[in-house]
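FAQ: What does a multi-protein file look like?

Like this. Sequence, then tokens, then the next protein.
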Amino acid sequence: MQKRNILLILLIIPMVFSLIGCSKSEDTISNTDNLKSKGETKNELDEKKSDSEDENEQDLLNNKEDVPKKEGVPSPLSGLYGPEEKIKRRPVAVMIDNHPRARWQAGLSKAEIIYEFLVEGPYTRYMAMFLKNDPKHIGPVRSARPYFITTSLEYDAVYVHCGGSQQALSDIKKLRLADIDALASKADVFWRYYKTGKRAPNNLYTNIDVIRRTQKERRYRNKGEFEGLKFNEKDIQIDGIKANEVIIKYFPNNVTKYVYDEEQKVYKRYKDGKLHIDEYNNEEIIAKNIIIQEAKTRVIDNKGRLSIDLIGKGKGMYITNGKAIEITWEKDTKRSKTKYIDKNGNEIRLNPGVTWIQVTKANPNITIK
């Protein structure tokens, strides 16, 4: 009896497992049939999943916040982007007074390139280049000198000034500059701005709107025809000596200083120990790039007027992002571009932003630390 029961149990167990196996198989087939009825096989599901992942990845790429869209075109003066209709114009170069009685100046915070040159005595003067921005106040405006004219020519600029030395006025006529002289303009193009507390000749002002209007009235060509400086597409760190502070002593009582702001990655500018600001909007004057250009300088008359050799070759420094490298410069003709060359013989590319070009005597008194 016991043997019969054991035999029955042994026969029943395989049958149970067989039924369980059939049930699982039928469920699997049933589920597969359902998938087929929807037109989707396992391979098709895998493909659909892959497509979905690709779409999600593309959405993430399209929504990246660290890739800002640049609108317009880059300015040949700064590498910064602006509306094409503005960037394609001729730049405006304005002579700006830097006599102690003229400070502070208006409009420098909106310039893209600013030059500082020696003039008579222990003084310097600025030439500010405007293209992307149209400031409402610029000044004080001062007189022309031949070396400023030579510099403005390489930018094909509309040259704005108030009178000038005899040689400068001769050069303007001979070279047929597109010039706007306060002494030969309508009364509303320049004005004395007495609210500044300054006196003549240190209080003559203008703005870009009236300069552009006068340019049109005089039928000066509007489209710019010049090469411009070379710029990196994005901010680049150069391999050079430490340059967190740059001090240029034109004279003991005429000192230009730059101090690097590591957080903003720009240099703040000081003149004779005071932070340089724009008197119109109270913005600090800054520089992304600083170029020191050494040039042979000599006095040519009893009034202390200077001759500064800008055609030829010379030494210099390029400074940006807390670093400085030695460079050379070269310029072939009055209208040709000044090229700034690195130690490998390549024209340097500046970082996008405002550039101050400090033109000094040969072997200047400069400290970089």
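And here is the next protein:
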Amino acid sequence: MEKSAVILGLSRQAKFLGLPLPYAMAVGGMTVLPFILFKPVWWFLTAPIWYGLARIATRVNPNGHHVFSVMMQVTPMAILRKGRLHVS
């Protein structure tokens, strides 16, 4: 494949606030959902904590959300199943 600026720009990972999009959505969810459910305004002050943890997770493994999604799709649910609980 050609390494032109257009191809490289269109094939890069989408980012929001400097984080890959799934991590940014998780930060938004961890900040907004408890506010919607429990109504404490001070919960918005935890946004920098979640953002910092997401930045650390991105530096450790920028594709961690892909690993998690594949793991959830491939590994069977073991709660309602009897017998072997591993993928063979």
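Q: Is there any per-entry metadata?
A: Some entries carry free-text notes. For the entry above: The helical segments are 5-11, 21-38, 47-60, 64-74.
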